[in-house]
Write a structure and sequence with these properties.
Length: 502
């Protein structure tokens, strides 16, 4: 079966025409021999080997069904929890009164980046029903601004953490609870807390919120795949049940395409196969993702987390052997501004980069001329990357403008763009919740398949954990002014800090 150069599915068009025949053939062949079965995502199959768990994020989409008894039970649980959460959110908003609601969202990593990315995109389509205040970092200035802005009498706090042990989330939650208790009293403050977690008992034990306000996900759903579950509560509050349902519907459409199509003919499969080919066969280290439109302003960080946290591994999925090539480093930004940051590297760097471009065919606003200009830029970059313009063409053009041959030759070498930089162009028909759901599911599936191709586990993130553990030790050493047990380099840094705080 020939490799398709265009795939239309789930409100998206994926154009693979700007890839060489060799790369497409390599992707096709590699995908055809991949032993993993995408249907295992809806089965009681251990896919996250280092933690001994299935990977059930697909089951959290509304309408999804498990393929065996255990996975169907998980789907039933997730859908029932979603219905309970949606009912609660609609009641809260309906009863808010004229002064509205301040929602303080405390998350980090996968419990923040996809939610913020979607919130920003959806907010250009309709205003949020609540005032949403985002706190993710351990940056006291952010917390100060939020606590100075939110009105305590109208504030609810979403504590979004799968484990309920995430350092940033717990530290920020403690600070917000102290602030709210100071205004409302401890008991009333606890009544304004909402937990979004797979560790319900710990959440209730630590903060004492009503159990009716503990909304549960599952340990089998990784944080960066969790926006569809209880962890996406903030989107329900901001935009309502109907919008969130449309978002799920787009993802379900992409799921059906992915689960029902051979990998070497599916959009996610072919994206993964090409990325793998560029890394393994062609040795390209860097993937660029350009998204055209300010609605996507927070999507780059989400895609970077999804891809690099999933694919940045150097050990095989079974832990038995090293892996010498895994996922690319990912740079990403919003066009056209991103064209003025790193696109110079894309066009003329000595080491080629492969690229993905995301654009929306129809405008989501009334300014059609500007939208067409935006799309022309996206297509112009894709064309320049692939077709380039060699020095000879530039020299002829410059000489025709009157430049002397020697000067034209020198100038032409500076201007020459070699081309041959491949890209996948992803069209969204429209900017809607449905199409955003389809786009996110496309990238989730692509990431999983690419992990399988490298032979790694795309569902864990043990590298992140070591830094967190060390941060706790270092904080204790800072407070105790005792550097025993720390590395010499860190001890020297702490000595400098002590001098600064003396």
């Amino acid at each position: 079966m020939p490799t398709p150069t265009t795939i239309d599915t789930s409100g998206l068009r994926l154009e693979f025409s700007r890839h060489g025949a060799q790369a497409l053939a390599t992707a096709h062949t590699t995908l055809a021999t991949l032993p993993q079965n995408p249907m295992d995502l809806v089965r009681d199959t251990v896919l996250n080997g280092s933690e001994g768990r299935p990977a059930w994020h697909v089951l959290s989409r509304l309408g999804a069904r498990g393929d065996d008894q255990a996975s169907q039970a998980a789907a039933d649980f997730l859908h029932a929890e979603h219905a309970r959460m949606a009912d609660w959110a609609e009641r809260l908003v309906a009863n808010a009164g004229a002064d509205g609601l301040d929602i303080i969202h405390l998350g980090a990593g996968g419990s923040e980046t996809p939610m913020l990315a979607l919130y920003t995109a959806l907010a250009v389509l309709q205003p949020s029903r609540c005032r949403i205040h985002w706190v993710a970092n351990l940056d006291g200035s952010t917390l100060e601004v939020v606590l100075a802005t939110a009105k305590p009498a109208h504030t609810w706090v979403l504590i979004n953490s799968k484990s309920f042990r995430t350092q940033e989330v717990m530290r920020n939650a403690d600070a917000v609870v102290r602030w709210l208790s100071g205004h409302l009293g401890a008991e009333a403050a606890r009544a304004r807390l909402v937990a979004l977690t797979a560790n319900a008992d710990l959440a209730h034990q630590r903060f004492g919120m009503p159990m009716a306000q503990v909304f549960r996900s599952l340990q089998e759903i990784g944080g960066r795949f969790s926006v569809w579950s209880a962890h996406g509560m903030v989107l329900l509050l901001a935009f309502g049940r109907d919008i969130f349902d449309q978002f799920h519907a787009g993802a379900r459409a992409m799921d059906e395409h992915f689960l029902g199509t051979p990998l070497n003919a599916s959009g996610p499969g072919l994206m993964a196969g090409l990325s793998h080919a560029y890394r393994v066969r062609f040795g390209l280290p860097l993937l660029s993702i350009g998204l055209y439109g300010d609605a996507f302003s927070h999507v780059p960080l989400y895609l970077q987390q999804l891809l690099m946290e999933s694919l940045g591994k150097s050990t095989s999925a079974d832990g038995a052997q090293p892996v010498h090539v895994s996922g690319p480093a990912v740079i990403s930004g919003v066009g056209t501004p991103v064209q003025h940051t790193y696109f110079q590297l894309l066009h003329q760097a000595a080491v080629p980069v492969f690229h993905e471009i995301i654009a929306v065919a129809r405008p989501w606003h009334a300014r059609l001329p500007e939208h067409l200009a935006l799309l022309a830029n996206a297509l112009g970059q894709a064309d320049a990357l692939w077709n380039g313009k060699d020095a000879s063409s530039w020299q002829t053009e410059l000489m025709a403008q009157g430049m002397a041959p020697d000067a034209a030759a020198r100038a032409a070498r500076h201007r020459a763009c070699p081309g041959g930089r491949p890209s996948t162009f992803i069209w969204m028909e429209q900017l809607t919740p449905y199409h955003l759901g389809s786009l996110l599911a496309l990238y989730e599936h692509r990431t999983v398949v690419e992990g399988w191709l490298y032979g790694i586990n795309p569902f864990d993130q043990w590298g992140v954990e070591l830094g967190k553990t060390l941060a706790g030790r270092i904080e204790h050493a800072l407070l105790a002014q005792n550097t025993q047990g720390l590395s010499a380099e860190t001890a020297a840094s702490l000595l400098y800090l002590r001098e600064q705080h003396a």
